[in-house]
Fold this sequence. Notes:
The protein has 229 residues and is α+β, with helices and mostly antiparallel strands. The chain has one domain. The protein has 7 helices and 8 strands; from the N terminus they run ααβαβαβαββααβββ. It has helices at 4-14, 25-28, 50-58, 71-77, 102-106, 143-159, 161-181, and strands at 47-49, 63-65, 84-89, 109-113, 119-124, 185-189, 194-197, 204-206. The strands form 2 sheets. The protein has a 5-stranded antiparallel β-sheet, with helices on both faces. Strands 1-3-2 form a 3-stranded antiparallel β-sheet. Strand 7 and strand 8 form a beta hairpin. Helix 1 (4-14) crosses helix 3, helix 1 (4-14) packs antiparallel against helix 6 (143-159) and helix 6 packs across helix 7. It is globular and about 45 Å long. The chain starts with a helix and ends in a 23-residue tail after the last strand. The mean pLDDT is 94.
Amino acid sequence: xxxxxxxxxxxxxxxxxxxxxxxxxxxxxxxxxxxxxxxxxxxxxxxxxxxxxxxxxxxxxxxxxxxxxxxxxxxxxxxxxxxxxxxxxxxxxxxxxxxxxxxxxxxxxxxxxxxxxxxxxxxxxxxxxxxxxxxxxxxxxxxxxxxxxxxxxxxxxxxxxxxxxxxxxxxxxxxxxxxxxxxxxxxxxxxxxxxxxxxxxxxxxxxxxxxxxxxxxxxxxxxxxxxxx
Length: 229
């Protein structure tokens, strides 16, 4: 088994594909004073494993430890695992794509794990749907991104059971939330195919991207052209 720093180096090498051909930050930045939502610690605080942090530090000065500035941020970080580090970068204008954290590369997606403990594809951090343009345009996601993201998480899960457990628990929370909302869970399958999870039976079926809910923030926009499949 490689050292954990070597593992994250391998993960970064595996996971290079962009979400899409669009610069999605230009779509959400007007909603957030010109700053892409996922690049703003006021909306999303990056959390990394301590060994991922050591690797990022060795690559330059893009990242620094994040210090909670208000009660909400302190509460958000209160229950983070002791092996996690909260970090922040120098800002989206200084982004170095090769030195992004795994969380940055994957956002707004996470690996969806079924009740049967199978990693079947990627779903979304739905709490960001009102600010994240991608979540209202899942048809733009490139299949290469899906494949590389899943491959990277499988590398991580093979070496970190707690990380897999956390994503399985998040998947379960999504099932509960979408059952209450009576909405299908959007799912991009392992090859990038469009799938949907029925909210009450949890059955996975083929879907059309137009079935995925568009948030009110973006519902009046014309849907972006889909990626080739």
